[in-house]
Amino acid sequence: MCSTALCLQLSGSNEGENMDAPLQDCTIEEQCGIVRFLWAEGVKPVEIHHHMLAQYGQSTMSQRKV
Question: What is the rounded average pLDDT for all residues in the chain?
Answer without folding.
Answer: 76
